[in-house]
Amino acid sequence: METSLLQLLHMGLLPMTVVMAADADPIYDFCVANLTSPIILNGLVCVNPATVTGSTFVFKGFETAGNTSNGLGSAVTPGFAGVNYPALNTQGLALARLDYAPAGLVPPHTHPRATEVIYLVKGELLVGFVDTNDKFYPAHLKTGDVFVFPRGLVHFQYNIGTTPAFAIAVLNSQNPGVQLIAPALFGATPPVEDAVLSKAFGIPPSEVEIIKKGFAA
Questions:
Q1: In 3D, which of 14, 13, 17, 44 has the Cα closest to residue 31?
Q2: Cupin type-1 domain location, by residue (predicted)?
Q3: What 8-state DSSP symbol labels residue 203?
Q4: How many CB atoms lie within 10 A of CB 62?
């Protein structure tokens, strides 16, 4: 009689391995990124540690508010190892400053490789995420509040106050990734077939075309 894999696991004859995905652990105290290196790695090439000083670890990119004069009324200023904060290389973190005009929106999106925590420095926000059972978890944040968006789940932030707001976000991956839901579906290249989107959203193909035009480059 054949013995199933599940039976072997229950009898203790096979080891049970739990696989957890995360950024690789650093093997040096630090590895300040060399942003001019042409070499592509799963991470970034380090500069010579002899050239590193205390000021290398200081980041001043969040001193100025982002430009919210756009259709969404929001701006995201990154603090990423591979963009403008090389000292974060191999530390498993990414940062962002989030600015919102009144009624400004960071639209529904996901971070496939990271959990996100935001600290609301000023203003009022409606935030929320949707879990894999389609349950919605909204919250009304005020200055000083902190909120966590679980990894990979669709979430958003919306300024419900009458004045500009801004927050600081911390994500537990050097390269968390971001996928905006609407552009991913209606602005993809090559385009997703109208019939697929029409059936998925329960709208006629003519409306799909109208929405697609809104996301055309």
A1: 44
A2: 60-209
A3: -
A4: 18
User: Model-level pTM?
Assistant: 0.83
The residues, any chain, with a CB within 8 Å of residue 85's CB and separated by 6 or more, are 59, 61, 79, 95
CB 111 within 8 A of CB 181: no
**Cα–Cα distance, 69 to 101 (Å, whole number):** 8
Structure tokens at 28: 């040096």
**How many whole angstroms separate alpha carbon 169 and alpha carbon 147?**
10
In the block, tokens 């990423």 appear at 80
126-184 pLDDT, tens digit per residue, is 999 999 999 999 999 999 999 999 999 999 999 999 999 999 999 999 999 999 999 99
Query: What are the boundaries of each domain within the chain?
Result: 1-47+61-172, 187-214
Strands across the sheet with 179-180, in order?
136-142, 124-130, 154-159, 105-110, 179-180
The DSSP element (H or E) to which 201 belongs, if any, is helix 194-201
